[in-house]
Amino acid sequence: MAKKDINNMSFLDHLEDLRWHLIRATLAILIVATVAFIFSKEIFKHIIFAPLDMSFPTYSFLCKCANLINVETSFCGETLPMMIQNRTMGGQFSADIWTSIYTGLVVAFPYVVYQFWSFLKPGLHPNEQKHSRGFIIVTSLLFFIGVLFGYYIVTPLSINFLANYNISDVVDNQIDISSYIALVRSSALASGLIFELPIIIYFLTKIGLVTPEFLKRSRKFALVIVLILSAVITPPDIASQIIVAIPILVLYQVSIYISKIVIKNQKKQQA
């Protein structure tokens, strides 16, 4: 394939180029989603519904920790006091379709990032391209770490807390399948996107919107925002919010370091 000459490309040419990158990214998601739909029963059994089993690794680990310090906890129970049910005719089919699509989005994420990067790369200077090597790997790695964090930490903590929360013995937890899947999906995807913070700071620094000094001055405000975010994606108990807030604060500190590197490289280029 011939190398694109962006200097001779019109605005419509750029739009056409972007359109094909979006088409290829969408096709990748649909292909993976189709495969996920074929194996949907295994995905629901071993991934989506796995946090409902008290043998889930997170519950087992927290139960052992509670036993070590001799504290009673709901993580050591035999079953969760809740039942998943479907209330609509097309509920299960809709859940199957959308779960397959989101699975396609997660699995095909590196290729989607690659298409996004392929569109932007020709517009960068050679030095910028050189310093941006590994962008796809780092972006995908952060996203997958965030998804795993959301799935193994945020999701089971939320499910366990909400399933055991009780206002009266009269009320039984009969959870609609769409509500349950929405919790699993939002916990995993929100964590995956939050873990992209260093990448976001990198680009904001490149275009001059943020600086390391600004990030340091805003650390107190960032702490408040982090606590709000952790409160949104976790159940309303202090322990869960702290567990989620710690890695986000670490990512914020890493972002400050990345911003310093970007500014340093820009000064070298200007010199």
TrEMBL record:
<feature type="transmembrane region" description="Helical">
    <location>
        <begin position="135"/>
        <end position="154"/>
    </location>
</feature>
<comment type="subunit">
    <text>Forms a complex with TatA.</text>
</comment>
<protein>
    <recommendedName>
        <fullName>Sec-independent protein translocase protein TatC</fullName>
    </recommendedName>
</protein>
<feature type="transmembrane region" description="Helical">
    <location>
        <begin position="97"/>
        <end position="114"/>
    </location>
</feature>
<comment type="similarity">
    <text>Belongs to the TatC family.</text>
</comment>
<keyword id="KW-0472">Membrane</keyword>
<keyword id="KW-0813">Transport</keyword>
<dbReference type="Pfam" id="PF00902">
    <property type="entry name" value="TatC"/>
</dbReference>
<dbReference type="InterPro" id="IPR002033">
    <property type="entry name" value="TatC"/>
</dbReference>
<feature type="transmembrane region" description="Helical">
    <location>
        <begin position="21"/>
        <end position="39"/>
    </location>
</feature>
<feature type="transmembrane region" description="Helical">
    <location>
        <begin position="221"/>
        <end position="236"/>
    </location>
</feature>
<feature type="transmembrane region" description="Helical">
    <location>
        <begin position="188"/>
        <end position="209"/>
    </location>
</feature>
<keyword id="KW-0812">Transmembrane</keyword>
<feature type="transmembrane region" description="Helical">
    <location>
        <begin position="242"/>
        <end position="263"/>
    </location>
</feature>
<keyword id="KW-1003">Cell membrane</keyword>
<keyword id="KW-0811">Translocation</keyword>
<keyword id="KW-0653">Protein transport</keyword>
<comment type="function">
    <text>Part of the twin-arginine translocation (Tat) system that transports large folded proteins containing a characteristic twin-arginine motif in their signal peptide across membranes.</text>
</comment>
<keyword id="KW-1133">Transmembrane helix</keyword>
